[in-house]
Sequence to fold (203 residues):
Amino acid sequence: GTAVLDAGGRIVAADGGFRRFARDHRFTPDTDELLGFNYLEHAARWRDRDRNPASQIVAEVLSGARAETEFVYSCHSKTQMHWCRIRARRLSGGALDGLVAVTQCEATEAYTASACVRIQSIVAKALGSQVPMLDACFELALAVCNELDWDYCGIWTLDLASWTLRFRKTWSRPGMALSPFEAASQSAALEPGAGLPGRAWQS
Fold:
């Protein structure tokens, strides 16, 4: 669906497709209130693949810094990973001068398919390299986190002497404050079925 924004980022027109999108993504309690709604304030919650706020990117089109832009952003819920696509372009001609058309659509299926291709490429490269297996696994885990917006990864390896999983390496997104969890993991020895890593091993 498409909406038209004024120079301040407020919605001045919206088609039925955009209203349905706004309803599904809870822009406002009532889609009849869309006109006059500040789109940029809502879009500040979304991030593109480089973690830039969607509002900042669209504002560049509104300001004239660029004529148009198109990007995928994440809009995950607490239970589901979700991506959408935005295309913003400046309008011109008479009363349209200074206005921007914003088109939004679902992109989860297409994004996850392309992410899987990129991850598979990284797997092939890592397994074909001469780096130690632990480093290759860590590189793969980081790639999955970056592609799918995961906030944490931990690498566990099998200790043959005790037949338990031992914590080896970790990464978390800045600002996640996971130090206590990571410290507890450092001393853990997980048997088959114990904890998430142990359950994954058992399966």
Q: What stands out?
A: The helical segments are 16-24, 39-43, 54-63, 108-127, 133-148, 179-186, 195-202. The two ends are 43 Å apart (CA to CA). The chain has a mean pLDDT of 89.
